[in-house]
Write a structure and sequence with these properties.
alpha/beta
Length: 237
């Protein structure tokens, strides 16, 4: 898997390789079980049931790093943050920020396009209970690191959605940029901001999960502030 990730010549090549990954037995079993049994509301739909690649432009100045695909969202539709409540919140915010051409994301062929932005996750398969293990994160890391390497020439800022994504970022400093991660690691928090030398700046944002958005822990205004800051750092109008 590590060698295959490193061989990926471009993002389409990488996306295809990611979609064929079987490296984590627990995740493979779960994603395929969900795709086979399906949720009642989607009983007539064919689930993707594979790892979910990144989505967005190849010359992104802004990256959004999430946790993992949702069982009945990205694992169903084959596109990250597509077809679930978290995606409804995220893409509405990106549309308000002028980074998406529409506020909804329901299917791979719905016409959604991003501007200056690419979205991907630390773990590419849907995990049971939305909780991948640190070991699964580390196994999946070569895909993340190669994706970052491919957009490295233009990337200026990474928005980490949640503490899991925040933790997944620091090993990339060594793997992609050849820089020792800070020690101790900067603490995650909504609005956290870290900057280094010759690397993208990192912004912390509460995850767009229903647990956060339904309780008001993360509001549309809070998301808008994060993406306004990301655009400023990236030099995006």
């Amino acid at each position: 898997m590590v060698a295959r990730a490193r061989r990926a010549a471009d993002l389409p090549d990488l996306d295809g390789a990611i979609s064929g990954c079987f490296a984590c037995p627990r995740l493979v079993t779960w994603r395929e079980e969900v795709a086979r049994t399906r949720r009642a509301a989607f009983r007539d739909q064919e689930y993707w049931g594979r790892p979910v690649p990144g989505f967005g432009v190849s010359d992104a100045r802004i990256a959004i790093l999430g946790l993992a695909p949702a069982a009945h969202g990205g694992n169903r539709t084959g596109r990250i943050f597509t077809g679930d409540r978290s995606g409804d919140v995220l893409f509405a915010a990106l549309h308000r920020a002028g980074l998406a051409n529409q506020p909804t994301s329901v299917a791979r062929d719905d016409g959604l396009a991003l501007r200056e932005t690419r979205i991907f996750s630390a773990v590419r398969c849907a995990p049971p209970d939305n909780k991948p293990t640190p070991g699964e994160r580390d196994t999946c890391a070569p895909w993340l690191h190669r994706e970052l390497a491919l957009i490295r020439p233009t990337l200026r800022v990474v928005v980490a959605l949640g503490a899991f994504a925040w933790a997944a970022w620091w090993p990339a400093l060594r793997a992609v940029y050849g820089i020792h991660p800070p020690s101790p690691r900067p603490a995650f928090g909504h609005g956290a901001h870290w900057s280094g030398t010759a690397v993208p700046e990192v912004l912390g944002c509460y995850h767009v999960s229903q647990q956060n958005t339904f309780t008001g822990r993360l509001t549309p205004r809070m998301l808008d502030e994060v993406f306004t800051r990301a655009k400023q750092v990236a030099g995006v109008d």
